[in-house]
Amino acid sequence: MRTFLLLLVMGAAASSAAQPNAPAAFPYPVKTDTLPNGLTVVRVPFHSPGLVAYYTVVRVGSRNEVEPGKTGFAHFFEHMMFKGTKKHPEGERERILATYGFDDNAFTTDDFTVYHSYGPTAGLDALVELEADRFRNLEYAEPSFRTEALAVLGEYHKNEANPWLRMEERLLGTAFKAHPYRHTTLGFYEDIQAMPEAYAYSRSFFERWYTPDNTLLFIAGDFNDSELMADVREHYGPWNRKVARIPIPAEPPQTEKRTVSVEWPSSTLPRQVLAWHTPAASLTTPGAAIQAVLADYLVGSTSPVYKELVLGKQLVESLGSGFYPHRDPSLFSLHATLKAEESRPATEAALAQAIQELAAGKVDPARVKAIQSNIRYSLLMNLETPNDVAGQLAWYAGIFGTPDALSRHLQNVARVQPEQLVSFAKRYLVDSQLTVLTLTPAAGGKP
């Protein structure tokens, strides 16, 4: 689900880049075919004897939840996809995969949902048949639906104990007024409570979004390509639904600074978040690539602010950015976990000064280049298994909608120039685009 933890992890991944004139950022051969029904099938032969990763990306997330009272359904439906079919009733799929030793799970973001399996090539034929069956023929009765709705409510209550969920809810609800990004992937609490009564809607959600032309497969590892594609065509070929075309409400421009505070009822560390509205991610414009570099430049471990607040004065426990690319205009955020409430003014001042200096034209080209070099090699070091490869490809395809999104995004990052950071900060990191969130624990206390 979408949480600040997910933002932190994928925000770091989003920074990965290749330097100009360096070897290609994505080092493995890629084969891509599109079936007549619109399903995109991407294969990456990878030296991993006997192992294969299988990722299914459905481009539906909380951004698509436009009907009043129906938030949280993209995440909820991730749960329902494990409920079985007439051919393979609930539990049978899991039993079959367990006999082979597959690791199997799923996650939902603002913009897409991913289902992933990793295990032995010996089970690949069975996996293709099982996956195609549930994406074509998912079947569940209303009692099963109601039971899972209560489980999702329980998941919300579990996450509610973490300050980040409350912070995310308040930040998004303040920064957004119309776009579905105004709620978390879990959804509004009252909508989650009402989910058990939405069985009919859930069936339409499946028909609307779980379609071949809205789905990409990524398969990486040890496999026979011709045999794999024969299986894919056989089992996925009859899938014939078409994705719905439903407009997403546009967010009206923000015109003045907004603030929101969270009072946490128990002891924890104070927190501070600064979030600015920024453009939608695109492979034909540099905005997403600029923000990927900007995040490390402003608050990464080589930044003056990090050295001052975390290492030097030790006012801040952690400092980072919540940025990762989004399909629609979203937020570029900086966040700090403070060691004490008394550290807040100095932290705010240091972050404001860093942004003001950048917007005024003070930029270090050598550090920009070093960041790009470091994050390129960080990416390469994290492509060690078929699961790593398929996962990275799937993530960027979910956002940008094309199989080569990772490579193209990294090429864009490699082209970022220092002066682009300056112009971006000057245009977007301004008070009229800013929402500030503060979290204060009970009595300003520490954990």
Automatic annotation (TrEMBL):
Domain (Peptidase M16 N-terminal): residue spans on this chain: 57-186
Xref: InterPro entries: Metalloenz_LuxS/M16, MPP/UQCRC_Complex, Pept_M16_N, Peptidase_M16_C
Pfam family, one: Peptidase_M16
Domain Peptidase M16 C-terminal: 203-374
Signal peptide: 1-18
GO biological process, one term: proteolysis
The protein's name: Zinc protease
GO molecular function ontology, one term from the record: peptidase activity
Gene3D superfamilies associated with the record: Metalloenzyme, LuxS/M16 peptidase-like
The family this protein is said to belong to: Belongs to the peptidase M16 family.
Keywords on record: Hydrolase, Protease, Signal
